[in-house]
């Protein structure tokens, strides 16, 4: 009897699995322009930038509108122009599951004219191409209220505060 109970506990724990890991394993990046739903609204990626930081990562901002194509690094859009996706990553070709350390933020206006930030830790991201000017890749991210999936291309920008 003392062998049966530990055996049953082990079998039951393995058969239940981890729901979060099951979600990640089922999520795949679809070959389409980055799109989805943020705060109940349809969202489609139009442009984005990856700004270098002192830590060697790029701070990424993806938005549903076109940035000034003549100087995308100087655009300073207002939050009212739509929800944004924010994340920071090392600018190298890589592919990883999201986690607490490698998450992204859905940022959008709330009903009180404030900004809400919801963190997603379920999903996957990848950078397929990285050079001094461009980062191309894909991502899928999911929370209870938000979900995005697809490919993107970002303009790399220098850190405007690098000399401070």
Structure description:
With 164 residues, the protein is mainly β. The chain has one domain (29-157). The chain is 13% helix and 43% strand. The chain has helices spanning 4-16, 19-26; strands at 35-38, 41-44, 47-52, 58-63, 84-89, 94-97, 104-109, 115-120, 122-130, 134-142, 147-157. Strands 1, 2, 3, 4, 5, 6, 7, 8, 9, 10 and 11 form an 11-stranded mixed beta sheet that branches. Strand 9 and strand 10 form a beta hairpin. The radius of gyration is 19 Å and the shape is globular. The model is unreliable at 5-22 (pLDDT under 50).
List descriptors.
164 residues, mainly beta, 2 helices, 13% helix, globular
Topology:
Layout (H helix, E strand, L loop, with lengths): L3 H13 L2 H8 L8 E4 L2 E4 L2 E6 L5 E6 L20 E6 L4 E4 L6 E6 L5 E6 L1 E9 L3 E9 L4 E11 L7
Parallel strand pairs: 3-11
Antiparallel strand pairs: 1-2, 1-11, 3-4, 4-5, 5-7, 6-9, 7-8, 9-10, 10-11
């Amino acid at each position: 009897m003392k062998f049966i109970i530990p055996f049953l506990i082990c079998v039951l724990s393995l058969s239940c699995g981890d729901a979060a890991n099951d979600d990640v394993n089922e999520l795949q990046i679809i070959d389409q322009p980055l799109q989805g739903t943020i705060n109940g609204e349809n969202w489609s990626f139009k442009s984005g930038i990856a700004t270098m930081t002192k830590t060697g990562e790029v701070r990424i901002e993806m938005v549903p509108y076109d940035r000034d194509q003549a100087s995308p690094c100087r655009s300073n859009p207002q939050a009212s122009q739509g929800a944004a996706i924010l994340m920071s990553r090392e600018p190298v070709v890589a592919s990883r599951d999201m986690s607490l350390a490698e998450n992204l933020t859905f940022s959008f206006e709330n009903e009180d004219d404030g900004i809400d930030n919801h963190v997603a830790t379920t999903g996957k991201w990848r950078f397929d191409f990285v050079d001094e000017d461009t980062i191309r890749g894909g991502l899928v991210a999911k929370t209870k209220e938000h979900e995005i999936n697809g490919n993107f291309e970002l303009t790399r920008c220098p850190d405007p505060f690098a000399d401070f």
